């Protein structure tokens, strides 16, 4: 049932902390999705906007007060970063990670096992050392690491 009538739907709980509710027949969103501006770091070359389903997230999308050490920079979902670590939520292990969501026909509710785990993100280039068999960090200014397209990342 969706909005009082039977309907084939698909519900996806993402690592972003949002539920995406789509029509299974045509793939169209049944709950609105807005494109919102997100913080930019020009060197990351990311999209200027990201999709946000209308409504509340099932986990916080910004680090909660007191959950991050005072010396760390924080950002909400889709934050921008480069070499300075930035702590974001729900993080790489947050949102929905391994456990699947479930639907109960008895309660007509979707159950989401959401996790709230902050993650620090930063860019760190690495180089493989054939002699030691280990990776070593490269300075950001080191141009030996190039992307698949042949340009510096």
Defining traits:
single chain, 153 residues, mainly beta, three-stranded mixed β-sheet, two-stranded antiparallel sheet, 11 strands, 29% strand, elongated
Show the helix and strand layout.
Elements: E1 9-13, E2 19-23, E3 33-37, E4 49-53, E5 73-75, E6 86-88, E7 102-104, E8 109-111, E9 119-121, E10 125-129, E11 134-138
Parallel strand pairs: 5-6
Antiparallel strand pairs: 1-2, 3-4, 6-9, 7-8, 10-11
Task: Summarize this structure briefly.
With 153 residues, this protein is mainly β.
* Domain tally: 1
Strand order of the largest sheet: 5-6-9
Strand content: 25-35%
Number of strands: 11
pLDDT < 50 runs, ≥5 residues: none
What's the mean pLDDT score? 84
Residue share in helices? under 10%
Number of helices: 0
Tell me the radius of gyration.
20 Å
Can you tell me the overall shape? Answer: elongated
Order of helices and strands: EEEEEEEEEEE
SSE-based structural type: mainly beta
Biggest sheet statistics: 3 strands, mixed
Cα separation of the termini = 47 Å
How would you portray this structure in words?
The chain is mainly beta. It has one domain (9-121). It is built from no helices and eleven strands. The protein has strands at residues 9-13, 19-23, 33-37, 49-53, 73-75, 86-88, 102-104, 109-111, 119-121, 125-129, 134-138. It has a three-stranded mixed sheet, with no helix packed on it. It has a two-stranded antiparallel ribbon with strand order 1-2. The N and C termini lie far apart (47 Å). The model has no long low-confidence stretch (mean pLDDT 84).
């Amino acid at each position: 049932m969706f909005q009082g009538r039977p309907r084939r739907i698909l519900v996806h709980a993402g690592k972003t902390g949002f539920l995406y509710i789509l029509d299974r027949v045509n793939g169209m969103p049944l709950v609105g999705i807005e494109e919102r501006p997100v913080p930019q770091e020009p060197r990351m070359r990311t999209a200027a906007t990201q999709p946000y389903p209308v409504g509340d997230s099932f986990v916080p999308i910004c680090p909660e007060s007191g959950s991050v050490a005072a010396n760390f920079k924080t950002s909400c979902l889709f934050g921008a970063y480069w070499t300075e670590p930035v702590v974001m939520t729900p993080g790489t292990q947050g949102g929905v990670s391994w456990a699947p969501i479930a639907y109960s026909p008895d309660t007509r509710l979707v159950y989401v096992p959401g996790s709230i785990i902050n993650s620090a993100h930063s860019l760190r280039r690495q180089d493989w050392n054939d002699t030691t068999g280990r990776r070593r960090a490269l300075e950001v200014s080191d141009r030996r690491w190039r992307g698949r397209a042949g340009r510096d990342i």
